[in-house]
Amino acid sequence: MTLDLPPFRSRFPWWGADLQTVANFLRPPRRDLAPHTSERLTVDLRDGTGDRLVCTLDRPLKPAKGAPLTILIHGLTGSQESSYMLSMARRLLDSGERVLRLNLRGAGPSRATCGGQYYAGRSQDFRALLANLPVELTSDGVRAVGYSLGGAMLLKYLGEAGETAPVVAAATVCAPIDLSATCRRMLQGRNFIYHRHLLGQMKVEATAAGARLEPAERSAILGARSVWEYDEVFIAPRHGFAGAEDYYERCKPVRFMAGIRVPTLVLGALDDPWIPGALYSGYDWAGNEALTPLLPAQGGHVGFHGAGSPLPWSDLAVATFFGIDRA
Asked: Which residues contact 29 (CB under 8 A, 6 or more apart)?
């Protein structure tokens, strides 16, 4: 599929991969989605844990008849309030689309209602969410957009579900399609500040009130000196993996992407400081007609702050792929 999109060009002052990446923190978007309305929705995962995902359902002021519900899935240490979630929500709401901003298990408001913790391979949570959403929300179809780790989870789910996935279209933005290679990139010296920030946020998130932890697990989390070690001493043993590398190998999206049958946009910047561009450029996209790669040379990690619009170019790309008229 060829998208009718203007090429991505960085806008001042967000020149370079790192400024594109940190722009979301330095200049976050407007958080008020008015005149559209929002309401809290809690979804029981019904998996025996008692965990319930807290979501925000956004309804447009002027609904478009028959429009699917679009579910947005955040990345590592993100939530429904992440800048990319809010900007994409506004883009969809302004076009009359309903949006569900999901907080993964243990993230954001879901921390208080979930004892467990999300991770990149926990695709069963997305499957449970789809199964337990109210029918009135899904009767016109469902789309999904996953960012970074949320995109990895979404790609894994879509590959596992194949033709049975109750999703009409999907998109991912800067998904780490190889978890081990991405972790190695994050541990490089040039990413020291990113890594230190992410690891600190991961520890806060995993040990916050509501987390169901054994004393040894809490100690392991707080003592982890790297993202790899966090996965080695906490995520892997808690979820049945032999170690971090076993977790990365068994859950990496490239193991599942050949099975995707839902039309899916895979957007990634080749200069992403967190994800090696070679993972995208080296993948056999022609082997699966359901996948549409969109790989601009620039954009950073979930950045895409481009010329011509205050909203990220990635929002336009996803909306165009979904067939939504440009606002």
From this structure: 83, 86, 87, 90, 311
Angle, vertex CA 130, rays to CA 258 and CA 311, nearest 5: 75
- The CA radius of gyration of the chain, in Å to the nearest whole number, is 18
Residue 32: pLDDT band (50, 70, 90) is confident
For 136-163, how does the pLDDT look when each residue is reduced to its tens digit (9 = 90+)? Answer: 999 999 999 999 999 999 999 999 999 9
Please state the φ and ψ torsions of residue 241, each to the nearest 5 degrees.
-100, 155
The confidence band for 29, taking pLDDT boundaries of 50, 70 and 90, is: low
Cα–chain-centroid distance for residue 81? 13
Cis peptide before 276 (omega within 30 of 0): no
Q: In what order do the strands lie in the sheet with 169-173?
A: 37-44, 52-59, 99-102, 69-73, 142-147, 169-173, 264-267, 291-294
pLDDT at 264: 98
Look at residue 327 and tell me whether its pLDDT is greater than 60: no
Cβ neighbours of 194 (radius 10 Å): 17
Q: How many of the other CB atoms lie within 10 Å of CB of 196?
A: 11
Burial of 323 (0-12, 13-18, 19+ CB in 10 A): exposed
Strand duo 37-44 + 52-59: pairing: antiparallel
Asked whether the bond before 60 is cis by omega within 30 degrees of 0, the reply is: no
**Amino acid in position 211:** A
Helix (H, G, I), strand (E, B) or coil at 283: coil
Q: Is 46 helix (H, G, I), strand (E, B) or coil?
A: coil
| Sheet strands (E) in 216-268 | 264-267
Task: Count Cα neighbours of 258 within 13 Å in the Cβ-side half-sphere.
Answer: 5
